[in-house]
Structures are given as structure tokens and as C-alpha cells.
Protein 1
Amino acid sequence: GKIIYNGELKTRSDVKVDIEDRGYQFGDGIYEVIRVYNGEVFASNMHVNRLMDSAKMIQLKVPLTVAEIEALVKELIAEDKLRNGIVYMQLTRGVCSRTHAFPINEVEPVFVAYTKEMPYTGKVKPGVKGVTTDDIRWLRCNIKSLNLLGNILAKQQAVEASCDEAIQHRDGKVTEGSSSNVAIMVNGTLKTHPATNLILNGITRQVMLKLCADNDIPYVEEAFTVEEMMAADEVLYTSTSVEVTPIINIDGQSIANGEPGPITKSLQKLFSEEIE
Ligand code: PDD
């Protein structure tokens, strides 16, 4: 297959990562995961703009413009004849002799993007299980950083508990999933953590909130406690890969009657209409 390496289409096996790439050594870089449905890039502009925002927050100069990145992604999808799947892209601070501080001399950041097939069934996703865990991550979770150790350890805990996602909490308040955002429904109002430094402001989350606004589903961007979540009418999580999915059991306890709730189901339906 082909990949994008620093603005050019290349054969994957021809590209090698340098052992002193700062992304490899320090996780010094940022990334995005974008969905492709029926050959179309979903929310392309929002994702690439978020990449730019992440870059800015770590003082990384992006060697490409938003339009250039979007064009490269389209080229890559056409080359791979990708119908349904994801585009993974990342940008690292580049290659230089190992030292914690930024390189003194101009170093070209390394940009990589490649695709992966992922089927889209169009079927509404059934409810899944969650497990709660302490949010042990740093305080700049709004940056889509390559440093994912906290997220990885959380997800592994979910896997070991035979659950689909880890629901992280800090000081008793639910922040987000290991690779998703979490929302609850209480008395017809959707509640989700505000887009602060404690969470990644998910594109799926933003699309869902817009759907709420457009369809008279009240919502508030307010943090909620683990107790509030356990007693909620509905719990759901969102991400590029899971879209809108109900969470029907947390820590072995059913949420409400243990079935996907009506508002979550309508949000799933509305979200699938955004895709088509
Ligand atoms: N994860 N929060 C975290 C910590 C995430 O890693 C993600 C996405 C989200 C949801 O963001 P979005 O709706 O823009 O996908 C929230 C991606 C999919 C990943 O790491 O694979």
C-alpha cells in the first residue's frame, strides 16, 4: 500500500522511522484519526483543524496547510481505493540527537498518514460494558498527543475486566473514556464534561452536540460524578471509531434497565443520517 510521508505518496515498505525521531523517543508529536464513509472523509476540516490546534499547543510548526493536508488525504484515499475505513495521521517534531528540549537548529517535522479498512454496516451499535478507573493522565488532555500511556493503561484495564471502554474520573468527576468522550442522560437532558484541558474535545462529541441543538434535545456541558452516572437514565460514549454507542453496564451494574435508552437511540439514528 501507499502512505503519505512528508507531503509525498510513497510505498509503505520504503519508509523507515529513524531511531532518533522525537515521536519514537519521546512521544513528541500529535495525531488524528479520521473516518472515511463511502469514499468520503467525515468531518475532514474539523479533524485537520484540530491537528493544527494540537500542533500550536506544543509549539510545533506544521509544514503543510489545512488545504494541503486535506488534499493529500483525498489523494491517499483515491490511491488506496478506500471506501470505508480510517485515515491515521501523525506529526512528530522530527529527527535530532536525543535531548529533552526542542532541537536548537531547524528540524523538519515528520508527517505520516496511512489508511486502514474498517467496515461500515450502517446498523445501530448495541450497548457495551464499561469499567470506571482513576484518570491518571497529565493536565493537557485537550492536546491530541502521541503520549498515550495513561490511555493505554486505562484501556487495558477495560480489556482485563472484559469491558469495551474504561471511563476515567478525576476528583470524583467523570472526564472521558480512554479513547472516547462520555455523556449521560438525566431527565431528558444530556450532560457531558465541558471542553476543558481535562478532555479531548471529540469531533464526534461536537457533531452530537450540534445534533442535540438542531433536534431540541437539551444538553449541558457540565462535569458529572460517577454516582450521577451510575444512577443516570442513559449513558453513551462517542468517538470516530464507535460513533455514538450506548453503555448499558458499568462496573458490573446495569444502567437503568440495562437496555440502550431512547435518546441514545435517536442520537445514533441522527448520527447515521449525518454519514449518509
Ligand atoms: N480517539 N478522547 C480521547 C482521549 C480520544 O483518544 C478520542 C479519540 C476521543 C474522541 O474524539 P473523536 O470523536 O474526535 O474521535 C476522545 C481516537 C479515535 C483514537 O485514538 O483512536
Note: The CA atoms of residues 55 and 61 lie 7 Å apart.
Protein 2
Amino acid sequence: MQYDMTDFSKVLVSENDIGRKLDEMADAIRRDYEGQDLLLVGVLKGAVMVMADLARRMPPQVQMDWMAVSSYGSGTKSSGVVRILKDLDADLTGRHVLIVEDIIDSGVTLSWLLGNLRARGAASVEVAALLRKPKAAVVDVPVKYIGFDIPNDFVVGYGLDYAENYRTLPFVAILDPKVYEG
Ligand code: 5GP
Ligand code: MG
Ligand code: MG
């Protein structure tokens, strides 16, 4: 596949980097949950690629479920009020749950999600995220498995979009500001 690379100011994480990191994360997850029932919960739509590639590295008893949420807020600021657009199919009672996320920025959505899922009687709820921005490192959102700490730039690719575009890229890139500044 050919891409117009002039849309990006930099490729931040290559396809190979992602693959190697997911190998490491999956090794740790398989070790930690060995002999336990595990449910991966993906947050649509951004986590689709991470979920697919992480789940492929799991034993066949590991299950997947999906949620879609939207954060209420004015403009670009997240208010912390989150609405469920699509809820899980699974009953979490007594289950070990691992939330699979694409990127954590303010951590607002994730901290709401953690509270919500923990209230459903899960045996445990942890988080795996491919990317984390600097803001997230200072808020109190415990992320057990983290791929890459990245700078505070707007990135696209590997599930992450700008206006629903760029999700299909196999790598993560910094979007050149000319694309959204017109
Ligand atoms: P938080 O609640 O942690 O501030 O927001 C997390 C969500 O914001 C992510 O799931 C993602 O949808 C979006 N987001 C945060 N940073 C970026 C970014 O650099 N690029 C893209 N495409 N989305 C981002
Ligand atoms: Mg997300
Ligand atoms: Mg988006």
C-alpha cells in the first residue's frame, strides 16, 4: 500500500516497532493471566487494531468484547461525563477484565471506564494501552501494560483517526499540522 507520506511530519512508531512491542506486552499478559479466564475489552473504534494484533497473540480461551463510549464536553475539552453508545455483551461478574486502549491522553475516559467496569463485580480490571501521552503519566490512571510513551503531538494511524481518516495505516505517525490547518 502506498501512502501520501507528505501528510505526516514524522513516522513515530513503525509497523515493526508495533509488532515487537505487542510481542512483549502479550508475553507479560499471558504470564500474568496463566490458568485464569481473561476477557479483553476493546474501546471502539480506536482500539480495533491493537485488539486484533494483541488477541492474535493470546491462547484461544481468551475472549473479546467491545464497548463504544462518547465523552460529553465543549469543543476539544473532555468534561469527564461519559455516555455508553454500545455496551458490553458479557456479564463481568467474577471475570478478569483487561481493557485494551489505543492511546491515553488526559485519562478522563479511561478513569471513568475503570470505575464503571469495576462496579460490575469483575474479579479484576486492568488496562493495556499501546500509546501514552505525557498528561496521562501524571493522572492517577493505573496502566498495567504500556507500549510507548510518546510526545504531546496529535498522532494518527493504527486505529487512530483524524476525521475518521488514517485509521488503516499500519504505523503511527505525527499528522502534519497543514492537514488540519487547511
Ligand atoms: P483521554 O480521555 O485520555 O483524554 O482521551 C483518549 C481518547 O482521545 C483516545 O481514545 C483517542 O480517541 C483520543 N486521542 C487522544 N490523543 C489523540 C491523538 O494524538 N490522536 C488521535 N487520533 N486521537 C487522540
Ligand atoms: Mg481509545
Ligand atoms: Mg478519534
Note: Strands lie at 8-13, 38-43, 63-72, 81-86, 96-104, 124-132, 145-149, 155-156, 172-175.
Protein 3
Amino acid sequence: MCLRSVPEHARFQPTAGNPDQSGIRVLDHSEPVVLADESVIAGLDYWRKLPIKQQPSWPDADAVRAASDELASLPPLVFAGEVDQLRSRLAEAAQGEAFLLQGGDCAETFAGATAEQIRNRVKTVLQMAVVLTYGASVPVIKMGRMAGQFAKPRSSDTETRGGVTLPAYRGDIVNGFDFTPESRAADPGRLVKGYHTAVSTLNLIRAFTQGGFADLRQVHSWNRGFAQNPANQRYEGLAAEIDRAIKFMIACGADFDELKRVEFYSSHEGLLMDYERPMTRIDSRTGTPYDTSAHFIWIGERTRQLDGAHVDFFSRLRNPLGVKLGPTTSVDDMLRLIDKLDPDREPGRLTFITRMGAGKIRDALPPLLEAIKDADATPLWVTDPMHGNGLTTPTGYKTRRFDDVVDEVKGFFEAHRAVGTHPGGIHVELTGDDVTECLGGSEQIDESTLASRYESLCDPRLNHMQSLELAFLVAEELGGHRG
Ligand code: PEP
Ligand code: CO
């Protein structure tokens, strides 16, 4: 992997004529406005001096500058108050008083931002959340890998097919998936299209989750439209119990206004600096910077170097942060990440998302948890049972075995049980559609079935039924852990 600095042309330039200090637009203009210190503003560009990985080579410097200017002038996607609220929810999860459910595509695509696909993903997350809440009697924080999960790290900068080598696909916000020189060229216009696609996705999510669709009294309707399968039949049974409980409480005179709306947070990997930097604004209440492209940002396994650009940039923001931890993570690395990203040991600030692999988690996770017990930090621990379990079939499909996913989840709970720490959440790649991308599950998807509906441009996702099955399993583990 090569380390290189961001070239001059890719640097964010403040919009000319911007009334706010140093070209950073304030997040909102309610009075009184607290301005940021000059050192805070300058610090937001310190990452440019540091080694950086996984950025595209943009062919046109002026076009990148123009796209950055435009992004910097557009409204934020999220507000600082919502971000603060999420931080306090995550603090509860870190204490074992809530559980994080984070799910969505590996790579969202512009073409996939349709009402139907967004609705199916939201429904799937809501169904999983109900299974977890009811099964384990715990509040569930709902978060989508949605409305901005457009940029992908790649293991190689290029891809070769039939003797032709082109730039690797880095996600729709950078280039196209089609294997032609035109499509694979990094196109700065996609930065702005990414923003607008995120806006329309988040708008629909907000409408669904605030406008009555997510009302717990709709618990049955979220199950409609999916092909009949054992997991959603099991869900029907649970939904009937919830229905009965709600009717009983209504008959007792309980006020269920609280059930009408759910909090649903957005998240994505903080990877593409030409997007994240111009989306960063100063909160007028506090004079501190927030990345307004999402509520929650995580730093990936490939870009979490302690002296690298990503860790430096995100360390300066107020958003709650995640960091992926693979099986080779040392205790020392973990402790230094805590010092860098959460120096004040702020509740809810830092989430470790472990992605060890089913065969490794039982050895790799306990030493990290033991070390945390002796440290003065309380990060939230979340399992990503997807990214350590990839395999490629002889026919060339990237896939994962559902059994490995389940086994990693079990290993995660076992490790926390043994050490006495809190298993605080799950992070999964899923879709609400009936795709055939991961092997197994009770539909018994096998290698010959993979081809029938494989749609992911990146990693394989759990389909609707596999997602529900996993939720039932996690609910049992979590219920057992808490009970
Ligand atoms: C991802 O979450 O899509 C991803 C690339 O994960 P990781 O950084 O853990 O490999
Ligand atoms: Co992925």
C-alpha cells in the first residue's frame, strides 16, 4: 500500500466571499454564535501534511476545487444537536444499557437510492430492532450504513481484466463500476452527486421514521412485501405478541405517543477527504467542528494509522467515532487510538467495531477486552461479523458463509462474558432485498444459487431473511447475557 500526500489540486479551498471565519460555514445561525478558535480551524487542515491512504487520483484539479467549494456552500445533512444526542445514546450502550444496531449496504450506489430499496432496508432494520428490543428487553439504537456510504477502500489501486488494467472502482462518489476507461476515471462531479443522493436518502429515512411508518403499531406491516420464509413467519409470531401487549396497555389508558417516531441515525466510513472536509462545519452553539455528512463516522481498518491523515482529521471533530479493529490489532495500538481519539474519555465518543473473523475472534478479542478493564476508558464494543469472513468461490463470487457470521457473533458474546465487559452492538452489511450473496441461512443458498441474484458491487450482504435470522440469534445471545 503506498503512502502519499494529498496533491495541491485536491485541497479544500474555502468558498470566496464566505462570511464565516476562515471560510468555514457555521452549522446554524441561531444566536448567539460562538466562533471557533483560529487554532481549531487551522487544525482541520493539518491532515494535509500527513501520510494518507485510499484517496483517488483526480484528473482535474480545478474541477475538484469547484466541487469542494460547492459542497462547502450546501446545507448540512445533520445537525449538531442530533449528533450530541447520538453520543449520549452510545454512552448508554457502552454501559450495557442499550444496544447498537448498525446496518446497510457495503457500498450504496446512486442507482440503488430508490424509494423501494431505501424502504426495504429501513423496514429490515426496524424489524431487526424489534426482535432485539423484545427478545432482549433492551433499548436499541438504530443506525443505517446509509445516506453517504459511497466511498470504498480497495486492496489494489487498479483492476486488471483480460489484460486490460484500469483504476479500481472506489465507490459511486468517485468513479463508475463499468470496466471502461471513461467510467473508471475519477470524476469530481460525483462528489456533489453523492451529496444530493445522500440528502434524498436521508430525507426519505426521516419521513419513514418520523412520519408514522415506524410507529410500533405498524409492527406487522413492516413484514409485508417480503417473500414468505421461516424467519418472517417467526417474526409474525413476535409481532402478534407485541400487538397484544400494546392493545392491553392502550386499554389500560397508557399514552403511546412515544411509539410513533423512532430515532434513526446515519453513518458511513469517513474515507474520502474531499467530501468529509467540506462537509465539516462549526457549530454555532459551541464553536466546535462537526462533520455534518452523517451522525456517526467510522475509520476503516485500512486507514486507522495513528500518525495518518484520517485519525488526525476525525480526532478533531465532535461526532461520535468508530474505528474498525482487525485480528492483528495490538493492545498498544488500541490504547494509542483511545488516547488520540478520546483523550477526555468522553462517554459515547468512541466505538470499537471488531472484525476479527470467526476463526480468530476467540483468541484476538479477549486480550483487548482485558486491557480495557485495566485502562480508564469505556469504549462501546460492536461486532462486525462480516469483514473478517470473506471468501471467493471457485466461480469468482465474493461471498460469506452465514454460519461464519453467526459463529463470529457467538465468539463476540463469549469473549465479553468471559472478561466481564459489555457486548454493545452489531454492525452488518445487509439489504432488504432477496439477494443471493451470502451462503447458507435457512434458505440454504449454495454456490450454484449465488448467481441467481447477486447485485452487490462490493461485499456480499445478508438478505432480508438472513438479517432477520441473525437478529433472532443476537436477541437470544443478548437476552442470555443480560438475563
Ligand atoms: C466496510 O465496512 O465496508 C469495510 C471496508 O470494512 P473494513 O474497514 O473493516 O475492512
Ligand atoms: Co464491506
Note: The chain has 14 helices and 14 strands.
Protein 4
Amino acid sequence: MADDRTFLTTRQGHPVRDNQSMRTVGERGPATLENYQFIEKITHFDRERIPERVVHARGAGAHGFFEAYGTIGGEPAAKYTRARVLNETGVKTPMFVRFSTVAGAKESPETERDPRGFAVKFKTLEGNWDLVGNNLKIFFIRDAIKFPDMIHAFKPDPVTNRQEAWRFWDFVAMHPEALHMVTWLKSPWGIPANYREMEGSGVNTYKLVNKDGVAHLVKFHWVPKQGVRNLTTQQAQEIQGKDVGHATRDLYDAIERGDFPEWEFCVQLMPDGPNDHLSFDPLDDTKRWPEDQFPLLPVGRMVLDRAPSNFFAEVEQSAFGTGVLVDGIDFSDDKMLQGRTLSYSDTQRYRVGPNYLQLPINAPQAQCPFATNQRDGQMAFYVDKGGADAHVNYEPSYLGRGLNEAPKVEKEYHQPVEGHLGRYQPTRVSDDYAQAGERYRTFEDWEREDLIANISGDLKACPAELALRVVWHLWHCDQDYGRRVADGAGIDLEKAKALPLLPGKPAPGENRKGPTYTD
Ligand code: HEM
């Protein structure tokens, strides 16, 4: 390896004896094309950037480990899941975590008001498990087909390249399901003090499956041992004036001084099935599962104890996806989860390249044997170890050569599915105002004040008819919420209240049950 060399070389291993001057004909003369050393250096530099992530471009990462407690709610974890990472004790599963903001570009300030991404890669003995979530436990929308529109509205204006409040609220006004997330986001919870003092959550609903093939619906959450701390807009502005990378700095500094951040990993569980008796749809990611009905049950802990040795190789090239599950953890029919699962690996094949899973940061851990018949493609630099019989890169083989299928699991989980193919209103129960109102009422006074000031400030920059509709929505979440925002933004509340229902949307408080096709 070239790593132990003490002098500079080219990538071809040739010593670089002068790194200060190009080769030229004479002191002032033209440069020549045969100057390999110069060309290698400059042309590699020309290619140093890969596309930044289309969302969550600004981030920081850290390595660590996960340890399972082996129990869930006082019972053996194996009762709920056959995933060894959750039911075996005494195993330190290596992990990599990437925290991020959503809408900002790669070098944007970490003080921005934005959900924080909380993406976790467990390198388990049974293969990788990625949990790609956020700090607010819910999301703006519940049908994946809306994601590009949402992100377009939240990212900069295509004409001016400026983020505009009116574009954000214009989208939200047409999506009452976003009001719950927006209520969190515009409060101090929209600016966590740093990455260590924030919660995390898988947001979407998954399933835990045990060895008998019995499934439970599950939500995953990270509870920080450091506690939760958020910032007001003013506090964030003061930090941003001095440091646009304060959260990365905070994370790295804590690890360096041995103050390793730690989170407890918890689940909320409910039996698999339609759960019709609930006042919300457990597959609707714009709703929280109330913790008094579905308590957080600890299953293990994660500790981050090592900063990356190179930002680009480990953080920028890391690739997380919701499709990356281990046996014993399964998909639910949450439509966002299903849509996301296509999107992540698709963008990574473009962003990093088709062999992105060969990179050390993304490959399974060394103790987990992996072997595919995938070959070639840009930047392939090894053939899987399991392909010892290098002639047979196909399966099955009559001669019994090459790789064989893995043994079957004892009881596969088979979800019954029946229905009419069509486009549906996404949930069977959609009171999109109730949880937003509850959230408003449970905030502390200073959080409510910051929330009101932030939304009122935004609405002053919005066209009058849009501001009226936003106040109408907020008033239906909670009358005090709507009134205070109207007062703060100088909006006539009575005029807002008199607006007709939004065409095509359920009335506030209305629960829709049964199929609602749109075509
Ligand atoms: C990143 C798509 C919803 C959390 C990304 C990326 C894409 C994407 C394309 C860039 C990935 C990369 O370049 O490696 C989508 C789509 C969604 C969706 C299509 C909805 C249908 C969500 C939701 C959450 C979320 C609901 C939170 C629970 C994240 C996080 C990252 C990310 C944390 C950054 C991962 C990292 O650190 O590399 N998303 N997303 N996304 N998304 Fe989503």
C-alpha cells in the first residue's frame, strides 16, 4: 500500500519531485500535454465533487455501537422479533449515523429551521439495517407521490434561488395533513440546539416479525440521554452570525473529549391489522401514536464514540435507505415508506454510482458474509468473496457450482392482501387538525410565543388571500392558535373564519372511513 510512504507520489506510484511548477518549454514558455503529473492532479480535482444529496445535503456523521437489552416491555424481545440485532444481548453492533438538515445546500448553516435528519446504519451480523428518520417523529405528507412537489416548494424559488415563505405556505395551505408537522417546525422544536440534544424517530410504521411469523406494527424512536434542547429564532441567529457549522463542531468536540452521546432505542407497538378502533390511522405518518396508549418501550442503546476520519469518504458517500431491513423487521403498507424505499437506492446509484454498496462505509461488516452475483459497472473494485468459483457468476448451476440460495426461514411472514387497484385518498381517518391543536396546547408558553411570532412573521410576507387561508387552518386546529397568529400578522380573523371549506378536502374534524377513490 502507498499509505506508509513518506513522500508524495502520483496515483500511479511515481514520485512527485516538484509539486510547485508545471512543466513548460522554457521559463515563460507554453505548457506541454505530456505532463502526466499535472494532468492527473488537475483532472482529478475537476471531479472532486459528486452531486450533493437532493435533500438533506448538509450533514455530519459519527460511528458508534448499538447494544440490545434483549427485552421489550419486560418480555423477551424474541417474542416480538426474530431480528438478532434486537433480541440478542452481549453483542456490540457497529453503527454509523448521519444527522442532517433537509432543505439547505451542502454548506448551509446548521441553525436553519428545518426537520433534522436522523439516519442510522446498523451493521448487524445478519446484514445491514438502515433506519432513516427525523427528530420530529412525523412528516408533512402521507403519500410519496407528493414528495417532489413538497421539496420544490420548500427549496429555493427556481427564478430567484431564494427560499420564500409564500411558496412554503402555499403548499401547506393545500395540505391540512402538514399542519401537525408545521406546528412542531415553526416552534423552537424546528431548531434543535445541536445534534446531540435531539430526539430521533423512524417516523414511518414498520413491522416486527417473530419466529412464528406473527407481526406487530412498530414505530422506532431514539431518546437522547443528553436531554432535548431547542433554540428560539433569535438564539439561532446569534449562533449563526458566528458559526454556520456549530452542530458538527458540537458533535465532534463531544466525541473528542470522551463525552460520547448516547440514545436509548425505544419502540411503540400495536397488533398488526387495520386497528379500526383508533381515532387515527397508524399507517399515516402525519400522526403520532399517543404515548399514553402506546408507551415507549426501551429495547437498547446507541453510543457514538468515533468521528469519521474523512468527511467525504464516510459522510458524503454514506448511503441510507428505507429498503434496507434485516429478517424480523418488515415493511408496513405505510405509503410513504413504500415510496421512499424506491427513491433512496435509486438516487444513490446516480449520486454515488452503481457500486455504492462496495464502499467500506456502506458495505456490511466483515463478520457478516455477503456474496452476490452482481458484477462490473463503474468503479467495481472487487468480486464478492463468496464467488470463490469465479467462473460461475449465475445461479442455479446444474454442476452445483457457484453460490447457492440461503436456507429458508422456518415461518415466513405472509401478509394477506386484497383490494381494488386505484388512486385513493391516503387515509381512512383524516382529522388533520386534532393533533396539531393538541400540540399547540401542550407547548410551554415560551414555545407558543416563538411559534406565533414565526408564523405571523411568515404570513406578513405572503399574499393576503393565502395568509387568510393559513389562519383559517390554524383556527380549526385551535381557536387561540388562529387568533394569536391573526393578531400577530395583522389579519382579520372574522374574514378568515368566513372562508368556505377547502374543495376536495375533508372538513376539519371530519373522519372519513372506507375507500375514497380519486380515479
Ligand atoms: C434523504 C427521498 C421522506 C428522511 C433523502 C434522499 C432522497 C429522499 C432522494 C437523498 C438520499 C441520498 O442522496 O443518499 C425521500 C422521499 C420521501 C422521503 C421520496 C417521501 C416519499 C422522508 C421522510 C423522512 C426522510 C418521511 C423522515 C422520516 C431522510 C433523511 C435523509 C433523506 C434522514 C438523509 C439520509 C442521509 O443522511 O444520507 N430522502 N424522502 N425522508 N431522507 Fe428522505
Note: The chain is about 25% helix and 15% strand.
